[in-house]
Structures are given as structure tokens and as C-alpha cells.
Amino acid sequence: MTQAETSPPLWLQGRDAVIAAAAPGDWREEAPDYHYSHSVMPGQRTKQHESGSLDAIVESIVQVFEMEVSHKGDPATWVSMVTEKFRTRVNGGPWADAADIVDKGSYNILIGDSVFYGQETFESSHEVFHTAFPEGFFWEVLEVVSPPPVVTFKWRHWGTFTGEYKGFAPTGEKIEMYGVSIAKVSDDLRLLEVEHYYDPNAFLGSMTGGCPVAHG
């Protein structure tokens, strides 16, 4: 049996493997650099998952998904999902498909309408958070509650607020948010549907001192 026959499919090999396998033309700009995830995140995460465990697999799949929707412009190149069937929503709101993610941006869809955020383009939404969290904005699985084909999992998203957020000065504090997601997956563990449940206003408001973002 050859190595190719024994290796897991690409989307289960981790984010670095998917980045390495991508063609140069797949990227919106250039291949993303996740060096903070290797150097900073390990010391800040709260859960250490055993390699090959369901928790580790779920975390890896979501990392691949986030990377692809953020940095690959053509859904046809996204290996983490069944693109023609995929849909996602937040807090029971309207469904968004792959085309919506390309058009609006994943951050905008995940945050929705918030007085602490305002209106952003795909590009500016990423710049907002890269500016606010220049040392990395990390995500980890805390617990997988149910196994495939309907995977329910708890998660934590965090970063250190050392850069400006929409005119609000940084505090140097660690900003954290917690949520629950429900993902339907295919037999080969590609994403079909993802629902997220969390409070974006609590997270964003912590960077603005509870003051809404000014609209001008």
C-alpha cells in the first residue's frame, strides 16, 4: 500500500498542509502566515488535545475552513466543505452560502449587525481585527459534545488587545469570547452546514468600553 493510499484526505491533514498544497493563484493576495499560531498560541490555549482525537480533528477542520474562507477567493478551491451544499448562520439568523461569504466576508457574516462594529468590506473587516490584535487572534475547541455526522462543540476565541479598534485605544488586556457551534459533516468529514451561537456584542463592547462605534 502506498503513502497516498494511507494518508488522510487533504482537509484532514491540517491547515499547513492545505496551504502547502494550494496553487499560487488560489490566494486573494498571498499565502497566509500563521507563525503566531505556532509560537504564541500554544502558551495561551487552555486545552491540549491528543493527536488524532475527535477534539483535535474538529479544531483542525475549523482552522482549515477559517483559513480558506479568509484567504482563498474561489470557493471551488475550498477543500474543507462540500461547497455546493454548504451554508452557515449565526444565532438563528439568515443562512449564508459560499457565494455570500465571498461577497460579504466571513467576519461580517459572523458578527452581523452590531452597534460596536458598523459596516465593513471583506478586506476592511480583516484589517480591523489584524490591527486590534497584532499579536494574533486565536481559536480553540474546548469540548466536542457530540460526534459526526452532527458535531456540537464548545469553543474559545481570544487575543491581546494591543492595537487600536475603530478609534478606541488598546488596553493590553486579553479579550475572550466563548460559543457553541453545531456542524453537519459529510461521510468524509467535510462541512455541510455550520450554526454558531455566541454574543458578538459582549466581545466587541469589551474593546469599546461599552460605547457604540461612531458612524459618520
What does this structure look like?
With 216 residues, the protein is α+β, with helices and mostly antiparallel strands. Helices cover 33% and strands 21% of the residues. It contains nine helices and six strands; from the N terminus they run αααααββαααββββα. Strands 2-1-6-5-4-3 form a six-stranded mixed sheet. Strand 3 and strand 4 (150-160) form a beta hairpin. The longest helix has 18 residues, at 54-71. The chain is globular and about 50 Å long. The model has no long low-confidence stretch (mean pLDDT 94).
Task: Record keyword descriptors for this entry.
216 residues, alpha+beta, six-stranded mixed sheet, 9 helices, 33% helix, 21% strand
| Lateral arrangement of strands in the main beta sheet | 2-1-6-5-4-3
Residue windows where pLDDT falls under 50 for at least 5 positions: none
Indicate the proportion of strand residues. 15-25%
- Structural class, from secondary structure content? alpha+beta
What's the short version?
The protein has 216 residues and is an alpha+beta fold. Helix content is 33%, strand content 21%. It has nine helices and six strands, in the order αααααββαααββββα.
Write the topology of this structure.
Layout: H1 3-6, H2 15-21, H3 35-39, H4 41-44, H5 54-71, E1 87-90, E2 96-97, H6 98-104, H7 106-111, H8 122-132, E3 137-146, E4 150-160, E5 174-185, E6 191-197, H9 200-208
Parallel strand pairs: 1-6
Antiparallel strand pairs: 1-2, 3-4, 4-5, 5-6
